[in-house]
């Protein structure tokens, strides 16, 4: 009888071995998930930066092709960027909730970008985004450029 009872259970060494293996696997998976979230935030931020740059460049091209001036406005509270042609809203870019439009620092008091009918702007600005890890990402637009690019 005593021999049968011993065969049904686990020894203390077997339990310690299983728990230590589970601890090692659990520890490495936590590190992997943390690394994955860091990479995911970077990809989301890069995507948003590229979307903003494309929006500004496409807005300038719109003004050039339609021989009209336009104003690009930044709504930090709504996390949106809009192109206006006078009083009409032409286009809008809404950023995802993963990336926040944190601040726009520009020459103009309202921080808007005005583009003339040839697609040029005399407004310089820096657009600051923050990802879920609160890391800042900056897009800088220089005066007198036909296109905007990301400067790191």
TrEMBL record:
The chain crosses the membrane at residues 12-36. Keywords: Membrane, Transmembrane, Transmembrane helix. It holds the Pfam family N_methyl. The keyword Transmembrane applies. InterPro entries: N_methyl_site (IPR012902). This is Prepilin-type N-terminal cleavage/methylation domain-containing protein. It comes from Clostridium estertheticum subsp. estertheticum. The lineage of its organism: Bacteria, Bacillati, Bacillota, Clostridia, Eubacteriales.
């Amino acid at each position: 009888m005593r021999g049968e009872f011993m065969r049904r259970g686990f020894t203390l060494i077997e339990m310690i071995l299983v728990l230590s293996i589970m601890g090692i696997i659990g520890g490495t998976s936590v590190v992997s998930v943390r690394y994955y979230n860091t990479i995911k935030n970077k990809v989301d931020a890069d995507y948003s930066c590229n979307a903003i740059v494309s929006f500004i460049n496409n807005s300038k091209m719109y003004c050039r092709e339609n021989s009209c001036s336009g104003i690009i406005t930044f709504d930090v509270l709504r996390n949106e960027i809009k192109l206006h042609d006078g009083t009409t809203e032409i286009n809008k870019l809404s950023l995802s909730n993963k990336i926040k439009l944190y601040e726009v620092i520009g020459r103009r008091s309202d921080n808007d970008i005005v583009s003339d009918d040839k697609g040029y702007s005399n407004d310089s600005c820096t657009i600051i985004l923050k990802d879920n890890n609160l890391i800042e990402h900056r897009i800088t637009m220089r005066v007198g450029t036909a296109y905007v690019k990301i400067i790191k």
